[in-house]
Amino acid sequence: MSPLAIGVAVYGLAFGLLAAQAGMSELQVGAMGTLVFAGSSQIIAVERLTAGAGATAAIAAGLALNLRLILITASIRDLYRGLPWWRVALGAHFASDENWALLLARRAEGREAGYWYLVGAGAGLMVTWISASVAGVALAAAIPEPRALGMDFAFAAAFIAIMRSLWRGRADLLPWSVSACGVAALVMTETLAASWAIIIGGLAGAAIASIRAHD
User: What are the two backbone dihedrals, phi and then psi, of residue 25, each rounded to the nearest 5 degrees?
Assistant: First the structure.
């Protein structure tokens, strides 16, 4: 998990810098990372807030973007079988793209990987993410004008890094295309505000991915 944690730290730092521009404190960013613990969801939510969208639109956008976690946790449901509800909730909270992928890779090699492997790796990522994002907020206080340094692009850069890590090959092409084209069409035709276009696009992509996975 350590090599992957380095990448998480990089865009965690970028998130902290830009969360500071949205007026968030170290405590707020740390609390958000602990309670939400979903980098892409946190980034899109804060980005929507800085763009002037309301809290409802920001939360909905974050939820839509993270719908893939339903499929991720469903694919490893055997880990949770027979466990008390609090351990199920804890495991689901710590589940992320990185530790889920490592768990499946370890199992594919015939090695043992169970519930505590998932939770332990997820806890390590959470510490890294929170530490880096809080450090980003503190660093922003030392920069007179973060926007003058082009820090706004860090949101886009962070998403590019996240997307690259999530790409699994041709199987992702259709749901990603449906999501991207749907958002573009809604925004360009001014059918919906950008916040709600992102939500609808995310839902459409998740629906296509779910149907393909079921097939």
Answer: -90, 170
Q: Are the C-beta atoms of 155 and 43 separated by less than 8 Å? A: yes
Q: Is 192 helix (H, G, I), strand (E, B) or coil?
A: coil
From residue 157, alpha-carbon distances to 1, 58, 150 in Å are 22, 20, 11
**170-173: long-range pairs with CB below 8 Å, 24+:** 171/212, 172/209
> In Å, how far from its chain's centre is CA 35?
13
pLDDT of residue 185: 87
Task: Determine contact, residues 38/66, Cβ cutoff 8 Å.
Answer: yes
Q: In angstroms, rounded to a whole number, what is the distance separating the alpha carbons of residues 118 and 69?
A: 14
56 burial (CB, 10 Å; 0-12 / 13-18 / 19+) is: exposed
- The Cα 58–Cα 41 span in angstroms is 9
Task: Give pLDDT tens digits for 109-166.
Answer: 888 889 999 999 999 999 999 999 999 899 887 776 666 666 556 556 656 666 666 6
CA distances, 200 to each of 41, 163, 206 (Å): 15, 18, 10
Lowest mean pLDDT of 22-31, 94-103, 188-197, name the range: 188-197
pTM of the model: 0.72
**Residue 42's Cα: distance from chain center in Å?**
7
- Which structure tokens are listed for 208? 């296509």
The pair of structure tokens assigned to 128 is: 């890294």
* Mean pLDDT, rounded, for 32-48: 87
What pLDDT does residue 195 have?
66
CA distance 195 to 54: 9
